[in-house]
Amino acid sequence: MKMLNIRTRLLLAALLPLILISSLLGAVFLLARFGDMQAAYDQRNRAVVRQAAVASEYGLFSGNRLQLQALVTGAMQEMDVRWVAILNGRGEVLASAGQSDQAFSLPMSTLEMQGFASDRRLDWLSQPVLPSTIQLDDLFESNGVEATQHPPQLGQVVMVFSRQSIDKRKHDMLLSGGAIGALSLLFGMVLAVVLSRGVIRPITRITQLVERIGRGDFAAVDKLRDQVAANDPLQELQSHIHLMANRLSQAHGELEQQVDLATHALREKKEEAEQANLAKSRFLAAASHDLRQPTHALGMFVSRLAQLPHDRQTGELIHNLDASVRAMQNLLDGLLDISRLEARAVQVNRRPFALAALFDQLQQDLSAQAAEKGLRLRVRSTQLWVMSDATLIYRVLLNLVGNALRYTDQGGVLVVARQRSSGQVELQVWDSGIGIAPEHQQAVFTEFYQVGNAARDRTKGLGLGLNIVQRTVKLLDHPLVMVSRPGKGTRFTLSLPGAVGKHESVEELPKEKPVPDDLRGRCALVVEDDALARSALVGLLVSWGMRVAQARGPADALACLTQGVVPDVIVSDYRLQEGYNGLQLVQRLQQQLDHATPACLMSGDTDPGVIQAAQTAGLTLLHKPVRPAKLRSLLRHLLMEQPPQRATGADLS
């Protein structure tokens, strides 16, 4: 867009308010005048009709048609009258005059009526004719005539008036107002042009002055100073600019001396910022742990609450509460995935695997979501093999396809694998969704960035999926390309190195094996120092039919064993008191039990070192908040081949 010069801007600044004010004033005055004219027109019409009704009373009473015809003929001489009719009490026309095509047929009424035919610009008025009544004092009539008795209607006068004359007057007034407004604007424009010349020239000189100051040409600034006239309206401003130029020249040398000092100070600030960043990281780690603890307990309490008997209204409330907890858990899980990927704490297990099983699992997991939105999810079968980490590739596809279904309202999503001549295998995810505009195509890969979701509607996701995808493919060193057209859809292409297929059985994707629900009657030792989280976890395990021994710390856990508790499984928090962590406590308990009792750890700590330590010890680490279904599945796997243990002397929950 071409920028307007300063002269044009000044003219617009002067004329636009004038145009606006004059237009508003003209409109207000014209509307007021039009209203007055219409009111006078209506008042005159009503007066004419009423006068005709009074004059026709005797003629209707006596049935004198000649008198009535003379009356309507005289009424036609009034301004704007187009048709007049006088009707008797039975609705018969006794006398009429005017243009018959403008006549109106109206029912008899004792009330005054009026209307407007907008298609013909005609007003009609109807006035009833009632006999005049005179109250008499009859000394010989004791009862007399009741005052409330209504006299019979003699007839009705109907008149039709044309708005042609008043419309013409309004039109002429509108033209006159427009002509006056146009002349006023023309005069204002001429005046603005003349006055602007005295301002434009000084501003032009100031522009040249500032431009030369910007180039450092202070000698030319002195030459322009001599061109300033004594009556220049911006003389004071130009004098101040010259003074500023002199001071800038002096400050130029001083700035060079201050650069070294500023560099030294900047170095100190950088060191302070690094220390502050470390402090912030420690604070966020502590805040994350403290936030995960109550969220973890809340999820357990809600799961337990859902198992209790309740009515329909309470069930809806529990469902909404569970949805809110799951939304918070999804957010924390997403943040955990990002922190693990950023810290390179994710273990990559590269090996050849077939895409067929991965595609089948993808179809099974997301078909219900697609069907719920009325979309078609097509996962084209393939016999191709690739070399990568099957679990991480599945999570990438799960995010991409889930995101495509979330932002597609009609059509469907296609997942396909293509073999290229270079040996690469391309995994492509196509959708017919809303697409992504070019200016957003880089930003959508950043955390919490969502297009068209300023209200942060959680049904549209959290804005972490594509960021996790990008971090994962960078960790795997696989190129990811996005092509999108707004309103048409989006295509993601992930390039993987191809591999030669094998005939022997290979586990393509970790799958949960069906196991019986054998938790009932099993004994669990729960070690948790947070009272709220411990109460929630114990209540949930008891609701699953398990016998639970609970301990606040290592000392209580060891005391439980001394009392005869022989747990089938140990569930311990990682961060404990008394100089122990969960990993050390599990090892100590297993030594005292003299066998490798199945165990798992739970922690709100997202430190990659904790994850690495648990993996080295061969223990499963569940990050808080733990989903009840995930915990139950893990306990079933841990206890699948473990025979039940019996307590000998402890009081279990």
Task: Describe the fold and architecture.
The chain is of the alpha/beta class and 653 residues long. The protein folds into three domains: 1-99 and 112-129 and 153-220, no CATH class; 234-345 and 516-653, Response regulator (Rossmann fold, 3-Layer(aba) Sandwich); 349-499, Heat Shock Protein 90, CATH 3.30.565. It contains 15 helices and 17 strands. Strands 6, 7, 8, 9, 10, 11 and 12 form a seven-stranded mixed sheet that branches. A five-stranded antiparallel sheet has the order 2-1-5-4-3. A hairpin with a 4-residue loop joins β1 and β2 (93-98). α4 (164-215) packs across α5 (218-225) and α6 (235-307) crosses α7 (312-342). The longest helix has 73 residues, at 235-307. The radius of gyration is 46 Å and the shape is extended. 25% of the residues are buried. The model is unreliable at 454-458, 503-515 and 647-653 (pLDDT under 50).
CATH topology of the largest domain: Rossmann fold
Major pleated sheet: 7 strands, mixed
> Helical percent range?
40-55%
- List the domain count as a whole number: 3
Instruction: Indicate the low-confidence ranges by residue numbers.
Output: 454-458, 503-515, 647-653
How would you describe the shape?
extended
What is the strand content? Answer: 15-25%
Oligomerization status of the protein chains: single chain
Which CATH top level class of the largest domain fits? Alpha Beta
CATH homologous superfamily of the largest domain, by name? Answer: Response regulator
Helices and strands, with pairings:
Blueprint: H1 6-55, H2 57-62, H3 65-75, E1 81-88, E2 93-98, E3 113-117, E4 122-129, E5 155-162, H4 164-215, H5 218-225, H6 235-307, H7 312-342, E6 351-354, H8 355-372, E7 376-379, E8 385-388, H9 390-406, E9 412-419, E10 424-431, H10 465-476, E11 480-485, E12 489-499, E13 523-527, H11 531-543, E14 547-551, H12 554-562, E15 569-573, H13 582-593, E16 599-603, H14 608-617, E17 620-623, H15 628-638
Parallel strand pairs: 7-9, 13-14, 13-15, 15-16, 16-17
Antiparallel strand pairs: 1-2, 1-5, 3-4, 4-5, 6-8, 8-12, 9-10, 10-12, 11-12
Helix pairs in contact: 1-4, 4-5, 4-6, 5-6, 6-7, 6-11, 7-10, 8-9, 9-10, 12-13
